[in-house]
């Protein structure tokens, strides 16, 4: 259902009358792009929850990993932190997702909340727009012995918006595409 909603928003961009000629984001278009970016972050949250869930079959988790990778710019990384160490480790998105799938817990629950833009989209010299969305992630892991680890991490997700072109029935059309970038850890606490 979310995928069809994303497709509807994308098609609204593609078929709007002035998008192909327009090089900047109008306030109305920006609001639609912001909405699409937030939706992609919510999709990522859902995918991470599915991949981390120990009840998800291995084949399903791998399928969801492939869908998750479609949300990101090439070369993006995810920060991983712990209450027990100061250092934040960064992994390529695919490596992070595969590690998440193999976590040594009997049960894992990951929820994201308080998802919001913290920096407005800013146009870059190359014509792309870049912004930051902040999320809070609650991680709960329970071992076979019943020991429970819980932390809450504040993370910043870089969002890239760029104009792309495609052809539909031989007619060139322009549209705005949203991709996620690096996810940086800002704070981890109990």
Shape verdict = globular
Helix content: 25-40%
Integer-rounded radius of gyration = 18 Å
Q: What is the strand arrangement across the widest sheet?
A: 3-4-5-6
The major pleated sheet works out as: 4 strands, antiparallel
Number of helices: 4
By CATH, the architecture is named: Roll
Overall average pLDDT: 88
Structural class: alpha+beta
Order of helices and strands: HHHEEHEEEE
CATH class: Alpha Beta
Strand content: 35-45%
pLDDT < 50 stretches: 5-22
Distance between the termini: 34 Å
How many distinct domains?
A: 1
Number of strands: 6
- Return the CATH topology: Nuclear Transport Factor 2, Chain: A
Care to describe what's here?
This protein is an alpha+beta fold and 190 residues long. It has one domain (2-189): Nuclear Transport Factor 2, Chain: A, CATH 3.10.450.50. It has four helices and six strands; from the N terminus they run αααββαββββ. The strands form two sheets. It has a four-stranded antiparallel beta sheet with strand order 3-4-5-6. It has a two-stranded antiparallel sheet with strand order 1-2. The radius of gyration is 18 Å and the shape is globular. It starts with a helix and ends with a strand.
